[in-house]
Write a sequence for this structure.
């Protein structure tokens, strides 16, 4: 695709949102995902929007608890 985001049809936009929500179902490689080896469950995942903020906050709290964070 080489179209601007505002020019996409509703079907194309839904298709893109489906791929972003479930990247492993569309055979996206592990190295392409933004959450590698989650600390709690050990899985690779694609984290978006407010989930990303929540995961970052959880990671920082965990690092503060074990006194391994950098200021």
């Amino acid at each position: 695709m080489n179209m601007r985001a505002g020019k996409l049809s509703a079907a194309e936009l839904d298709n893109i949102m489906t791929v972003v929500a479930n990247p492993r179902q569309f055979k996206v490689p592990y190295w392409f995902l933004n959450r590698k080896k989650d600390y709690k469950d050990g899985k690779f995942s694609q984290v978006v929007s407010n989930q990303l903020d929540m995961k970052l906050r959880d990671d920082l709290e965990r690092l503060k608890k074990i006194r391994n964070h950098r200021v």
